[in-house]
Amino acid sequence: NYSAELEYRKNEFKSNLYFSAYNSELGIFYGAASSNIDDFESRLKLGRPITTYGFSYDITAPKHNVAHYFLKSETEFRLSPNNHFDLVYAYQNNHRKEFDVRRLDRTTIPTQDTKLDSHFVETIWKNTHFRGLETQFGVSYLRKENFNVPGTGVVPTIPNFVLNNYAGFFISEFKRGKWLAELGGRFDFRTINSLGYDMFGELYGGKRDFSSFSYSGGVHYQITDHLEYVAHAGYAWRAPEPYELYINGKQHGIPIYYVGDKNLNAEKGLKIVNKLSYKKNRFFAEMSAFVQPINNFIYSIPTHQYRELFSGPAALFKFVQSDALFRGGDLAVGIPISKNLEYHSNLSLVYADDQHTKAYLPQIPPLQLSQSLKWNIPTSVFKNFYAKVEHQYFAKQRRFNPDFDLVADSPDAYHLLGLKIGAELEYNNKKSVKFFLGVENLTNALYKNYTDRLRYFIHGKGIDIQFKTQFNF
């Protein structure tokens, strides 16, 4: 894994080029496979692996092999102090291979071999007018090409597809005294063209077109030097993703078989946010609340039926839509305890219901509390030397609908502790090396995350220790 960045500046011209490569081999949970429906339901009831094996660093099937390459170019042409053009191009290549335990020597052949290429181009004209008025006008284009490499011997989970998205937008900002007002608009046109063979050898897929306007507006008011109020409203939409429309296959590592719905409509909704924040020196406090009705909200639910596969039965899930109502809020605070010691905390809560049936929607995170205590350690050897203790609390999701789940109740509440230590060492005329040590789930606690469907068969990740170094030269 590596990355590189190059920047060039001359007069009114600036250009930046960034490239990164990421390759990983990730082992996948194996203990959820079952031989029949009774065995499957026994594993659900137990909630943990029936059989365990000795620890090993070897990564064998089932596993993922992922190669991820990313290239981004940003260029700015400044025509005058108040006018400039920005041009952005980004390319991303993903190659994902999924390996399962297969008969004979076929384990070395991936069951899914997928390549996804993405291209993104955007140009923006930014103009600063008189009396605090700033405007932006832009156009963008996104293209995604998904290709299933043949030769796996398994029907691809999603078909080959090409996605094109064309957009034009504007943003306007006006400042006057203690007030700041924002207004924006955008139009998107998206096409999805898919084609593949299902498990019965029949062609499926097709072409879908989606288009809609989006709008947003907001005001900022500086009540005092330290107190600010923000109100924002926006109308937005989201076209269904290709996997929501056409998926027809099992999730890797979990015996859940997803079936898409080619007739899904685009989500459309209004979101209203109010925020009040106070900042003075190193102290800050912020509270926000939002309400968001969404028409045609897309989510997946179990059918309480099974799909029989060579690897055993899999619970059948389908994608559905309903008119949903989201609301919630956040509360954040930062308190300087001393010159080198500070406390941070964030509380987050989200509710979501079906507007018509009032049923609780699935996979909505429960109340969460995150807090940390950071000590900036003065030293003549290291720069930015610190130690941070973190605590996370996840409440039990009591807004739980067993009809939308495979088990009768949501996981219990749990606490997680973490530790982070970082430092920077400078040498040879501003060259430096950064060190980072992080420990998650410090106490190796047993827990299950409600939004993670692996919870049906196994507990969450245990203690995790990471050490990183970064060289700047």
Structural write-up:
This protein has 473 residues and is mainly beta. It has a domain at 337-473. Helix content is 3%, strand content 64%. It has helices spanning 37-46, 242-246; strands at 2-10, 13-27, 63-80, 83-99, 112-128, 133-148, 160-176, 179-197, 203-222, 227-238, 248-250, 256-259, 267-280, 283-309, 312-336, 341-354, 368-376, 383-394, 414-427, 431-440, 464-472. The mean pLDDT is 95.
Summarize the structure.
By secondary structure, the protein is mainly β.
Overview features:
473 residues; mainly beta; 21-stranded mixed β-sheet; 21 strands; globular
- The SSE string, one letter per element, is EEHEEEEEEEEHEEEEEEEEEEE
Secondary structure category: mainly beta
Strand content: over 45%
Task: Evaluate the radius of gyration.
Answer: 26 Å
Overall average residue pLDDT? 95
C-alpha termini separation:
18 Å
How many helical stretches?
A: 2
User: Ranges with pLDDT <50 over ≥5 residues?
Assistant: none
Largest sheet: 21 strands, mixed
